[in-house]
Write a structure and sequence with these properties.
heterodimer; A: 4-stranded antiparallel β-sheet; 11 strands; 50% strand; globular; B: mainly beta; 12 strands
C-alpha cells in the first residue's frame, strides 16, 4: 500500500535526551513536512523539505533538527534544547504544483505522541 | 502574517442536525483554502478545497464556498451523522509562501445519536 508511515506511535523522552521520530513515504512525493499539534493550538510547522538534501525552518524550529538524505525519509530529532517537547507530532508529504491549487494533496501520517518522563 | 481563524469548539450536535463551522482568513494575495478532518487517533485527511473566489468545495455532504469579499470559507453540512465526529481544521496556502499550509486551531465536533 502507498502511504506515509510514522514510528513509533508513542515515545517517551528522559530529561537531557535526544529522541528521533521516523517518517517514511512511498508516494514519490518531493516535499515533506513536520507539524507539532498541541491541544487548542492547531498545527504548527516545525521544518519542511521540498527536495532531497535541502530543508527549511518552519515557525517553531528551535530545539528540533531534521535531515533529508533520501526522498522517502524525513526524520525529526527532538533535542534536549526543546524544553517543552510533549505534543503530538505529525509528518506529511505532498507534491507542490507551481500553479493555482498548490500542494493540496498533503498526505499525513498517523502521528507520534511524545511525552516526557 | 497570513493566518486562519476558526470558531472555537467544542461543538456538540444531535444526529441529523445542521453543522456550520466558521473560518476566516488573513492573507496577502490570493490563497487556496482547505478543510482537513482528523478522526480520533489519526492524522489529517483533506476534506475539501477551493482555489479561487466563489469556488465551492464539496465532499461527503460537506460544502464550503470561498468568499473573497468576507475573507471566509465556512464549512457546512445539512445533516450530520455520528461518524462525522472529529476535529476539523481550516487551512490556507500561498504560492508566495512556498505553498506551506497554515492551519486554524481546529474545531472539535461531537455528534450524539
Amino acid at each position: 500500500d502507498g502511504g506515509i508511515t510514522q514510528s513509533p506511535k508513542y515515545l517517551f523522552r528522559k530529561e537531557g535526551q535526544n529522541v528521533t521520530l521516523s517518517c517514511e513515504q512511498n508516494l514519490n512525493h518531493d516535499a515533506m513536512y513536520w507539524y507539532r499539534q498541541d491541544p487548542g493550538q492547531g498545527l504548527r510547522l516545525i521544518y519542511y523539505s521540498q527536495i532531497v538534501n535541502d530543508f527549511q525552518k518552519g515557525d517553531i524550529a528551535e530545539g528540533y533538527s531534521v535531515s533529508r538524505e533520501k526522498k522517502e525519509s524525513f526524520p525529526l530529532t527532538v533535542t534536549s534544547a526543546q524544553k517543552n517537547p510533549t505534543a503530538f507530532y505529525l509528518c506529511a508529504s505532498g507534491s507542490p504544483r507551481f500553479g493555482r491549487g498548490g500542494n493540496e494533496k498533503l498526505f499525513f501520517g498517523s502521528g507520534t505522541q511524545l511525552s516526557v518522563l | 502574517g497570513d493566518s486562519v481563524t476558526q470558531m472555537e469548539g467544542p461543538v456538540t450536535l444531535s444526529e441529523e442536525a445542521f453543522l456550520t463551522i466558521n473560518c476566516t482568513y488573513t492573507a496577502t494575495g490570493y490563497p487556496s483554502l482547505f478543510w482537513y478532518v482528523q478522526y480520533p487517533g489519526e492524522g489529517l485527511q483533506l476534506l475539501l478545497k477551493a482555489t479561487k473566489a466563489d469556488d465551492k468545495g464539496s465532499n461527503k455532504g460537506f460544502e464550503a464556498t470561498y468568499r473573497k469579499e468576507t475573507t471566509s470559507f465556512h464549512l457546512e453540512k445539512g445533516s450530520v451523522q455520528v461518524s462525522d465526529s472529529a476535529v476539523y481544521f481550516c487551512a490556507l496556502s500561498l504560492r508566495s509562501n512556498d505553498y506551506k499550509l497554515s492551519f486554524g486551531a481546529g474545531t472539535t465536533v461531537t455528534v450524539r445519536a
